[in-house]
Backbone:
């Protein structure tokens, strides 16, 4: 058994931290079972600021760090276009997409060389790919929690609510606490809850 | 305290491969670490620098990989345990020393970690370090995952101490930059006791020319081969599993063995298949290879990089099972001989060897192909407020004052993006040998880019060849200048090459994650690049990257100078400025009444400048903008107003 998750966004949005929280929760869940392994395949490091970033999180009886084509049970998109970019290749028919509706247009679009697809077109495409979509304005919810930077944790909260990871809410909350600076703990726990609630209403 | 030393042996942590390698180094009793940053290897040394004070080890950033290699080799010749880490291309820089150290070896222990980059995510090439292990005739480990990366680094230090030879650990991007569960081992107490003996175990041990000469040192290296082979045959990282009645054998190395194992699980055919998992890949375990070759009618070799294992399998099969059908990436291609592997490719190859049909859905592929058209590209750019944007804009304006087709040679660093282009913009190639190409943005300003320091060397060749159709220039960053440009600049001055060299000093080794460079300071004296370049014999100019007028004028003067000229352009990396100063949202604004929609501000290439195709007006993304003032200075209409203080001031 394995769970395959991809967390994607634009460099600087915090998708790497989000993937660390999810993977940390999964490892806690694994305990000392040597057959239950956790893998995070990440792309970052060289001038990826503003570029596409995707972290593949896999857990269970897995060894390789990458999710296969049409194999993602869950895609967490910090940005709609990046969600579509990943879903077109990796979404399993019947899989779930947790999507922040707030667009970050690429330079190509800002400079007028390409056109950003309408949100409705992205949602329709995800539907055609067989995705169950939970769309939310995570940036607004993060602002409500106290900082737009906690947008990633809002989405982690929403992703946790789907139950697809098999990990308990308390394990997730602990993983958030373990990985954010102490002074932002309350803010991030609130952000997690707002995402959790929002996904609960959506499903 | 870093988690790799705060946690206890037996504890299970989620570690990045590079952190796992750092932990393995401590478990192997490492005393000294040296490196030059290079993606995807940098976090090995960053982690060890983090724990240096708490553990008492010595760790440093050296100015390049050759120096780092020599620092580690020197330490090992003095009898302590050392580690040097680098990216694939770093080994090329260290090559000269690297090839000779095995001739006589070392007295302590020395591990060379090289992070290869199949798929060339962060590198100029896909070169395979295992080939270099054969070339230098030293052992090479190749981990399957992060926990093996930890265990192998410790084991490599042990094997190195035993053989008195440097030993490789070959990582790849998807090991080094991926994370996995790692179970910590024991860290031994260290008591480094450096010593020296000129004739240790062999006359003139540390001088390849020392009598009776280099060939005798080479013969010594060959006398270690039986021990090297025994280590491979007995290694716990090489595991052979033969299954009764199986006709197919899979031989898989390193990360390839993770993909292959996943494929066997997915396809539920593990019971019908012999499996040789390789982790110590040079020298290869001959007995195990022979056994699986003899037992199989069909073989599939799975490995990242070149067909290194596969060619050995062909050679052995010729003698031991000439009828075996061998699949891999060499003669019978189950994989392409370039690019990187992934789970899908390996599963498809395994299914093919087992003649299994995988479910395919043409309708879905067709639909996906259509939807893919919606997914517009996201070009990587320099950051908002990056000093290189100012340098490139000033360079472009300065070059307009001179007729002809100029050549601007680049190299490796954030500024290499000056040659990436913007994906949304169409580019046409052409057969003409001479044709002027437009510079539509800073992302089209660099004409060549190969490796660290290559620009200033190539520029000299172009100038000395008699290129007179335009000016010849090169650019490099501060860290690259110290890494690879000093001999080239001395040569340019010595040979009076008519080139202009721009040194874009942003005070950090930014691209690899902001390691300090010799111009960072950090409590140490800041190296004087202009003084150094002048002493080497070049004519020097200096300007600030954020002052477009001054920078343009200065570059133009340097370009007009006949002979070697250097312009040092200073301005701190914007990301470091943001981390330190935490500025609020940008205050720079566009006056829509004054904006004519000319898009010149867009040509500055800053990701904080936007354009509304409906109103035909420029705008500013306040979240990204840090009020550097470059767009304000570039706007010919005066439609932009500066908001705050220029961060470079």
Residues:
């Amino acid at each position: 058994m394995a769970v395959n998750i991809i967390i994607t966004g634009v460099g600087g949005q915090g998708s790497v931290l989000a993937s660390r929280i999810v993977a940390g929760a999964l490892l806690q869940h694994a305990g000392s079972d040597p057959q239950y392994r956790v893998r995070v395949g990440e792309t970052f490091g060289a001038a990826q600021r503003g570029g596409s970033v995707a972290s593949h999180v896999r857990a269970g009886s897995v060894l390789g760090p990458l999710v296969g084509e049409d194999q993602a049970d869950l895609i967490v998109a910090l940005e709609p276009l990046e969600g579509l970019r990943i879903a077109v290749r990796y979404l399993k028919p019947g899989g779930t997409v947790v999507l922040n509706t707030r667009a970050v247009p690429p330079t190509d679009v800002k400079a007028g060389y390409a056109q950003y697809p309408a949100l409705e077109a992205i949602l329709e495409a995800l539907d055609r790919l067989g995705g169950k979509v939970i769309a939310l304005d995570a940036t607004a919810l993060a602002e409500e929690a106290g900082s737009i930077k906690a947008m990633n944790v809002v989405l982690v909260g929403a992703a946790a609510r789907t139950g697809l990871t098999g990990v308990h809410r308390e394990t997730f909350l602990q993983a958030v606490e373990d990985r954010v600076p102490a002074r932002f703990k309350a803010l991030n726990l609130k952000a997690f809850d707002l995402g959790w609630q929002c996904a609960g209403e959506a499903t | 305290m870093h988690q790799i030393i705060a946690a206890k042996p037996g504890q299970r942590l989620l570690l990045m491969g590079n952190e796992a390698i750092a932990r393995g180094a401590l478990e192997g009793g490492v005393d000294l670490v040296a490196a030059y940053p290079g993606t995807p290897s940098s976090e090995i040394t960053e982690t060890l620098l983090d724990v240096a004070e708490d553990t008492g080890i010595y760790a440093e950033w050296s100015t390049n990989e050759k120096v780092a290699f020599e620092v580690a080799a020197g330490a090992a010749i003095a009898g302590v345990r050392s580690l040097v880490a680098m990216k694939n291309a770093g080994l090329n820089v260290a090559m000269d020393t690297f090839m000779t150290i095995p001739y006589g070896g070392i007295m302590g222990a020395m591990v060379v970690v090289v992070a290869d980059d199949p798929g060339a995510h962060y590198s100029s090439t896909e070169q395979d370090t295992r080939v270099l292990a054969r070339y230098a005739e030293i052992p090479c480990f190749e981990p399957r995952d992060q926990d093996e990366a930890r265990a192998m680094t410790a084991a490599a230090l042990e094997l190195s101490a035993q053989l008195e030879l440097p030993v490789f650990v070959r990582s790849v991007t998807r090991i080094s930059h991926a994370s996995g569960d790692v179970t910590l081992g024991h860290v031994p107490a260290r008591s480094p006791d450096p010593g020296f003996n000129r004739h240790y175990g062999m006359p003139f041990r540390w001088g390849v020319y020392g009598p009776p000469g280099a060939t005798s040192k080479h013969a010594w290296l060959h006398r270690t081969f039986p021990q090297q082979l025994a280590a491979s045959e007995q290694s716990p990282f090489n595991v052979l599993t033969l299954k009764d009645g199986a006709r197919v054998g899979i031989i898989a190395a390193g990360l390839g063995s993770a993909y292959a194992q996943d494929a066997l699980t997915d396809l539920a055919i593990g019971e019908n298949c012999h499996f040789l998992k390789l982790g110590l890949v040079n020298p290869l375990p001959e007995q195990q290879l022979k056994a699986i070759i003899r037992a199989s009618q069909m073989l599939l070799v799975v490995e990242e990089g070149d067909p290194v294992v596969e060619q050995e399998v062909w050679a052995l099969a010729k003698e031991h099972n000439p009828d075996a059908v061998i699949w891999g990436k060499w003669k019978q291609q189950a994989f392409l001989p370039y690019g990187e592997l992934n789970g899908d490719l390996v599963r498809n190859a395994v299914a093919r060897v087992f003649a299994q049909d995988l479910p395919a859905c043409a309708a879905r592929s067709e639909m996906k192909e259509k939807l893919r058209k919606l997914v517009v590209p996201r070009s990587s750019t320099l950051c908002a407020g990056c000093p290189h944007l100012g340098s490139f804009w000033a360079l472009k304006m300065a070059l307009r004052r001179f007729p002809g087709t100029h050549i601007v040679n680049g190299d490796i660093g954030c500024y290499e993006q000056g040659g990436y282009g913007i994906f949304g913009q169409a580019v046409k190639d052409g057969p003409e040998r001479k044709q002027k190409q437009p510079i539509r943005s800073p992302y089209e300003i660099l004409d060549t880019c190969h490796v660290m320091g290559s620009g200033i060397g190539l520029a000299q060749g172009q100038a000395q060849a008699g290129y007179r159709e335009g000016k010849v220039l090169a650019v490099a960053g501060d860290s690259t200048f110290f890494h690879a440009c000093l001999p080239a600049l001395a040569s340019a001055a010595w040979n009076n090459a008519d080139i202009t060299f721009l040194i874009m000093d942003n005070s950090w080794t930014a691209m690899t994650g902001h390691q300090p460079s010799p111009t960072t300071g950090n409590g140490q004296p800041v190296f004087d690049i202009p003084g150094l370049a002048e002493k080497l014999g070049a004519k020097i100019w200096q300007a600030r990257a954020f002052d477009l007028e001054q920078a343009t004028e200065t570059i133009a003067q340097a370009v007009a100078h006949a002979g070697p000229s250097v312009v040092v352009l200073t301005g701190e990396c914007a990301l470091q400025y943001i981390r330190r100063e935490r500025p609020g949202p940008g205050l720079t604004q566009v006056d829509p009444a004054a904006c004519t929609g000319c898009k010149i501000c867009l040509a500055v290439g800053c990701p904080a400048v936007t354009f509304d195709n409906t109103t035909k007006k420029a705008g500013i993304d306040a979240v990204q903008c840090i009020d550097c003032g470059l767009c304000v200075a570039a706007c010919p209409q005066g439609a932009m107003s500066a908001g705050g203080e220029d961060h470079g001031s």
Remarks:
- The first strand of chain A starts at residue 2 and ends at 10.
- The mean pLDDT of chain A is 93.
- The CA atoms of residues 7 and 19 of chain A lie 6 Å apart.
- Helices of chain A lie at 15-30, 80-90, 107-110, 119-128, 138-145, 151-161, 169-179, 185-202.
